[in-house]
TrEMBL record:
This is Putative glutamate--cysteine ligase 2. InterPro entries: GCL_type2/YbdK_subfam, GCS2, Gln_synth/guanido_kin_cat_dom, YbdK. One of its GO terms (biological process) is modified amino acid biosynthetic process. Keywords: ATP-binding, Ligase, Nucleotide-binding.
């Protein structure tokens, strides 16, 4: 490989009251303060959220430095505005409401989609990986579909919601699935077929516009990349960088398989749905669905098999040892969902969960 493919990351964060942990509608104030520090925060659908966007980089060390910087600036801006920044996919407390951000587009989405929009407060993580063109992005998307549940399990970080253990490691993914354009993408034979599907969803009102393509992997509308959107926002920068490295390895493997004409794994829709649900429910702490053999297998074993499958790509970009070490660390410490439940189990006090989340958000910063 003569050049190392570039990648970048978008992370969404909650803004909460430092004392109660309740979501607070301060995204504009936080964005204004971050802008003074040279960081452009994006406003999300609900006004208790902001999003950071990393620079485009070609290695995990630079990505880590960039994400640490962005979290540090965003957290300082939040503090200045009277809020606390949390890397959590859902608020652990019981919110009174999720006010929609006051822009014409977001107001229209709120009116069209009702409680799906107003019960939001959902924070994910999106990884962009450079690909040659949109046709390549479509074929990569097709080939990534069997691996998406594993990526969800790895990043699960929304076990505690509304002062309760949801019984799921990623309750975010369950709530997110209510949008008509969310979840795993269909298989598309071409970019033209993809565009026709998007046009139908817009034409019928299932989406307001093509900015509402919420599938868990999609060709980016703005960059020459494929965008993987399946993850909860990870609890720590280290976990985000690990996720991004695994995603890039998956994309490069899919590109290589496509170039060599490797046959695609048959994928029954009901099996993929079962794999998604198991990943959302158990995260790393239980069995997943082996989509090759249609059997249950420990999620950690399935992740190890994925790393073995993408090892050549990881070695090409110098990420193999980093990924192996990172997965071992997550297995030992637990991901965000595991740590949320550990904190919750101490006293069933959401304050313990909030304190743990706040520490994890700025770990290393």
């Amino acid at each position: 490989m003569t050049t190392t493919p570039t990648f970048g990351v978008e992370e969404e964060f909650l803004l909460v009251d430092p004392a109660s942990g309740a979501p607070v509608p301060y995204n504009r104030a936080v964005a204004d303060r971050a802008a003074d520090a040279g960081v452009d925060l994006q406003l999300e659908l609900t006004s208790c959220q902001v999003e950071t966007t990393s620079d485009v980089v070609d290695n995990t060390a630079d990505l880590r430095a960039e994400l640490l910087r962005l979290r540090r600036v965003a957290a300082t801006a939040a503090q200045q505005a009277g809020a606390q920044l949390l890397a959590a996919a859902l608020p652990p407390t019981l919110p009174r409401a999720f006010p929609v951000t006051d822009t014409p587009r977001y107001r229209d989405i709120g009116e069209r989609f009702g409680m799906i929009a107003h019960e939001q407060g959902i924070c994910g993580c999106h990884v962009h990986v450079a690909v040659p063109d949109r046709e390549a992005a479509i074929q990569v998307s097709n080939r990534l579909r069997p691996w998406l549940p594993l990526l969800l399990a790895l990043t699960a970080n929304s076990a505690i919601y509304r002062n309760s253990d949801t019984g799921h490691a990623s309750w975010r993914s369950v709530l997110w699935g209510r949008w008509p354009s969310a979840g795993p993408p269909p298989h598309f034979d071409s970019a033209d077929e993809y565009d026709a599907a998007v046009a139908l969803l817009v034409r019928t009102g299932a989406m307001r516009d093509d900015g509402m393509v919420y599938w868990d992997v999609r060709p980016s509308a703005n960059f020459p990349t494929v965008e993987v959107r399946v993850a909860d926002v990870p609890a720590t920068v280290a976990e985000t960088v690990l996720f991004a490295a695994v995603v890039r390895g998956c994309v490069l493997t899919a590109l290589d398989d496509e170039r060599r004409g490797e046959p695609m794994q048959p994928l029954a829709p009901y099996a993929l749905k079962a794999a998604y649900w198991k990943a959302a429910r158990d995260g790393l702490d239980g069995d997943g669905v082996d989509l090759e053999n249609h059997a249950a297998a420990p999620m950690t074993e399935l992740l190890d098999r994925l790393v073995a499958r993408i090892r050549p790509a990881l070695e090409d970009v110098g990420d193999y040892d980093f990924v192996v070490s990172g997965l071992a660390d997550v297995a030992a410490r637990g991901n965000g969902a595991t740590r949320q439940r550990r904190a919750w189990a101490r006293r069933h006090d959401v304050g313990d969960v909030l304190a743990d989340m706040a520490t994890a958000t700025l770990e290393g910063c």
